[in-house]
Amino acid sequence: MGEHNTHGEHATPNPARRVSAAVVPLLGLVAVVAGCVFAWNSATSNVGWFAYAPLSNETFTVNGGAFVSQGTQTGLIVAVLGLLVLAFWAGHRIGRQRSRRGP
User: Fold this and answer.
1) Which of 87, 94, 96 lies closest to 28, judged by CA?
2) What is the pLDDT of residue 52?
3) 3-43 pLDDT, tens per residue?
4) From residue 30, how far is each of 13, 35, 38, 72, 97 by CA, in Å?
5) Cα angle for residues 16, 18, 21 (degrees, 5° grid)
């Protein structure tokens, strides 16, 4: 309860808080979907073989040093960031509901 509310009376929520309550999970969900789509479309990368060549005097290196392409890595990072936003939002909402109920 607020300072100026009587028992049983609730303060009206701030309109900006309502908008952020709808926009934050929506942005998180969009980030997850966009990251997954981007990672899925980038998954078709060519995997090459390399061999030991003792007489060539060249060093062979792999771009990124991983079996996953950089596009797929970027898409997965965006998806994970979206999941983190959704987890933070859910924890914030649960914490606010519990604090309203009291101890």
Assistant:
1) 87
2) 65
3) 655 555 566 667 767 777 788 899 999 999 999 999 888 86
4) 26, 8, 12, 17, 25
5) 110
Interatomic CA distance for residues 96 and 56, integer angstroms: 65
Task: For the beta carbon of residue 21, count every other beta carbon within 10 angstroms.
Answer: 16
Average confidence (pLDDT) over 61-77: 76
Q: In 3D, which of 74, 70, 62 has the Cα closest to residue 45? A: 70
Domain ranges of the chain: 24-42+66-103
Inter-residue contact 28 to 89 (CB < 8 Å): yes
